Amino acid sequence: MNRLTTLAGAVALATLTTLATAADPIKIGVAGPFTGGSSSMGVSMRDGVRLAIEEINKSGGVLGRQLVAVERDDEAKNERGVQIAQELINKEKVTATVGYINTGVALASQRFFQEAKIPVMNNVATGSVITKQFDKDPDNYIFRNAAHDSIQAPMIVEEAITRRGYKKVAILADSTNYGQLGRSDLEAALKLKNVTPVAVEKFNIKDVDMTAQLLKAKEAGAEAVLTYGIGPELAQIANGMTKLGWKVPLIGSWTLSMANYIDNAGPGGEGARMPQTFIQEPTTPKRQSFIISYLKTFNPKNARMDSPVSAAQGYDSVYLLAAAIKQAKSTDGPAIKAALEDLKTPVEGVVTTYNKPFSKTDHEAITANIPVFGEVKGQRVVYAYPDDQKKASEVRVKDANAKGALSQKK
Predict the structure, then answer these.
(1) pLDDT tens for residues 159-172?
(2) Which residues pair with 377 in a beta bridge?
(3) Same structural domain, 317 and 205
(4) Does residue 346 come out as left (phi exceeding 0), alpha (psi in the -120 to 50 range) or beta?
(5) Sign, CA torsion 342/319/257/124
(6) Residue 404 DSSP class
(7) Domain residues for 252?
(8) Are strands 372-377 and 380-383 parallel, antiparallel or unpaired?
């Protein structure tokens, strides 16, 4: 009798343990710069993630469990990103991680998740090599839902050379991995147009005087300046051009939409153009709902998201992961990865409707048919072309044939 009682007690304890485990929250790591020059992107991404998690939890969570964000500020520093990755894996036991704003931080950090077989959803960093870092491994746990630079660079060149007819362009790129990989993509895209930049100049993070670089570009006869950098330094480029009395178009990567570019450049920043996966306009019911919820929840200054692209892509990244966990019926890393590579049900996002966005060999959710051109006008980003705004009102899905003009491999 005692043996039966003991056995019954053990079974009851095991059942309770299983139920407790089933009810435990699903931890999602959220890594990005929430302070410093990149924080405009990081905070917007984080807020988009928070909004998606709140919505999913209100609807019952995933697998009957609530999602919990484990947020960490990587300060846009590679070494800090590495520390955070190890903490999220070993201490927090996250199921997956979203984020990474800076290409260098992503490349330094995501190898730990790869080794641990934990999926990473890059939702802002755009360096073309990011999802190719572990191509030689049997399984790749690195995914992305941002427009990589092999999409953006050809768009920038097409805008400058073909659409607007400039023959002489200069490139100004920062000295980070992001800036220099982007510069390389720009040069490759220009080469396809048989164009050689008249000047290629580099600057550092926190530089406040771009006079030397701008004078070289001006003296070389540049008709437009193509940029790869982030908001604060891009603003210094615009301000430097104003001081020199040199007004030529700025056309660059998506980061020209950052609030700390727009606000710090002031009138001198008007007219800058950049590829965008999302512009803060209610062109679809889903976008309208997202914008209303975001503004109500976070109450940003001037009713303007600091980085709309980061917010939207952060939001969508959580829904993509939630769909994969639900399909896998598991929080096991390999099962989630397999589900992401073969999502059975379309995921309606803010950027687009994701219809089989990934495959075993393609971990990029965004293709060249999705981004449009934005323009800084009246201290916010608007659609540069009316046709793009009309296109944005339609449901756009990933086109498996719409790849960037450049190879993503470095």
Answers:
(1) 999 999 999 999 99
(2) 380
(3) no
(4) beta
(5) negative
(6) -
(7) 150-276
(8) antiparallel
